[in-house]
């Protein structure tokens, strides 16, 4: 636990338009936690007592299905709410957020959520829009998993990562957190072997560059053409 760094908070879109006094009150009820790389914030199936906001770092949300398959259901980026089980009618957390880089989170008691939103309509609107975007992304992923062949699914996933967590380095776009081929396999519902084969093929074509837990997009427009190509 450590003191809340207000400079990390005030510029986040979730708090856009809030009066300073309302933001100060919100932060006074929060607890800040440092989450080292590899640590879990909470575990799937655990009773949902807190909800969270990521201030700094990245988290991957893992979910184990009924048949034992492990999936990465989303990546949490700075400014994202997560663990808000109450908002989706859950009493237990549906996944396990794991830090893929040293991270900082804010936490509030779950029972405070409704009161926060009732007293701060601007925050409620921002939160509603954020949750709506997450649901839209989830629907897109379900559609991709159901209707698209694997290369297109991987292309869509890499494009999203570049758009949400990409940093320009010359002509390349570097995904700004460690990501392995196994991670991409778990994001796209396929195997490590398939992801390795496809990414190696893309590297030979100059679409991406890789390394140990490193992914750079060298030709974003080329990946978009792959992603938009209709299956026969």
Summarize the structure.
With 232 residues, this protein is α+β, with helices and mostly antiparallel strands.
The major sheet is characterized as:
4 strands, antiparallel
- The number of helical elements comes to 8
The quaternary organization reads as: single chain
* Cα-to-Cα separation, first versus last residue: 54 Å
Mean pLDDT: 90
Helix fraction, binned, reads 40-55%
Shape: globular
The low-confidence runs, each spanning 5 or more residues with pLDDT under 50, are none
Task: Report the C-alpha radius of gyration, rounded.
Answer: 19 Å
Strand order of the largest sheet: 1-7-2-5
SS strand fraction: 15-25%
Counting helices, strands and paired strands, the structural category is alpha+beta
What is the helix/strand order? HHEEEEEEEHHHEEHHEEH
Tell how many strands the DSSP assignment holds.
11
Which short descriptors sum up this protein?
four-stranded antiparallel β-sheet, 232 residues, globular, 11 strands, 8 helices, alpha+beta, 23% strand
């Amino acid at each position: 636990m450590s003191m809340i760094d207000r400079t990390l908070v005030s510029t986040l879109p979730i708090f856009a338009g809030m009066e300073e006094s309302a933001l100060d009150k919100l932060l006074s009820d929060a607890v800040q936690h440092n989450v080292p790389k590899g640590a879990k914030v909470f575990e799937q199936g655990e009773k949902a007592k807190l909800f969270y906001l990521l201030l700094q770092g990245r988290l991957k949300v893992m979910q184990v299905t009924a048949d034992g398959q492990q999936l990465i259901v989303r990546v949490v980026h700075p400014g994202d709410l997560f663990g808000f089980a109450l908002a989706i009618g859950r009493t237990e957390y549906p996944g396990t957020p794991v830090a893929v880089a040293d991270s900082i989170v804010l936490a509030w008691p779950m029972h405070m959520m409704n009161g926060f939103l009732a007293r701060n309509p601007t925050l409620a609107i921002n939160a509603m829009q954020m949750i709506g975007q997450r649901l839209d992304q989830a629907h897109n992923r379900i559609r991709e998993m159901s209707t698209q062949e694997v290369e297109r699914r991987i292309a869509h996933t890499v494009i999203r990562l570049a758009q949400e967590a990409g940093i320009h380095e010359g002509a390349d776009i570097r995904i700004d957190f460690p990501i392995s081929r196994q991670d991409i396999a778990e994001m796209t519902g396929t195997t490590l072997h398939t992801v390795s084969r496809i990414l190696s093929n893309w590297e030979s074509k100059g679409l991406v560059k890789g390394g140990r837990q490193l992914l750079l997009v060298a030709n974003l427009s080329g990946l978009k053409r792959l992603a938009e190509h209709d299956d026969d």
